[in-house]
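Trying the structure run again after the queue cleared.
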Amino acid sequence: MPVRAKNYQLSIIMHIISGFKLRPLGDEFILVGEGVEQVNFNKMITMNDTAAYLWQQVSDGSEFDAARLAQLLCSEYEVSESQALQDAGKTLQAWLKAGIIA
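Done. Tokens:
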């Protein structure tokens, strides 16, 4: 059964902004801006294994929402649908705030 986002903001379809590359750094990952699109991007974004997994799953240019991220979490980790949706929503909010998705 598909995970459904009850909050309107969580059901907005989003996509990754082009020009970012995920790179391993010790036990974490960093997201760096590369290319002309990200010439003014001066932030360092760190991600744990779970956030990096989600990023890798949607970095192909596909559109996604919190429900899609929650489905990915449920398929990869032993987590309830409600917890996965809550975690996916927090991840999306952090990514939006960082300016790496739209």
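The chain has a mean pLDDT of 87. Worth checking whether this holds up in the mutant runs.
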